[in-house]
Design goal:
DNA-binding transcription factor activity; Multidrug-efflux Transporter Regulator, Chain: A, Domain 2; Putative transcriptional regulator; mainly alpha; 135 residues; MerR-type_HTH_dom; 2 strands; DNA binding
């Protein structure tokens, strides 16, 4: 009998290994309501394809700097009535906000770089003056 890929199941160890995170992190996301594994008769967690996909989205969201609350809203965890269109719109709003933050940070770093280069130039000029006086 062939296994049905739609019913693929993962243990917490499988997911931890695949995504290079600790089982504790996965349990944390479960505690926050972002994952909902089934339980075996021995009370072992069994994750399905949907949980795996959500975990992938959670980790991507964290990498992009989103909060867990923002991630939950983007993947439709905060409002069961929210459809895909609303999820996409929420994701776009959060994406625009994050892009603005990134652009502001880049601009701040450019200003800092200019300031440091200006100070460096002044210090090098002063150093040259002092070395000329010593000759």
């Amino acid at each position: 009998m062939k296994s049905d890929p739609k019913n693929k199941r993962y243990s917490i160890s499988d997911l931890a290994l695949e995504f290079d995170i600790s089982p504790r992190s996965i349990r944390f996301y479960e505690e926050k309501g972002l994952l909902s594994p089934k339980r075996t008769s021995g009370n072992q967690r069994v994750y399905g394809r949907r949980d795996r996909a959500r975990l992938k989205l959670i980790l991507r969201g964290k990498r992009f700097g989103y909060s867990l609350e923002e991630i939950a809203e983007m993947i439709g965890m905060t409002d069961a009535e929210k459809g895909e269109v609303e999820q996409i719109r929420a994701s776009l709003v959060y994406g625009e906000k994050k892009l603005k933050e990134i652009r502001d940070s880049i601009e701040g770093l450019r200003l800092l770089e200019r300031d440091i280069l200006s100070v460096k130039e002044k210090l090098l000029k002063r150093l040259n003056e002092l070395e000329e006086e010593d000759r």
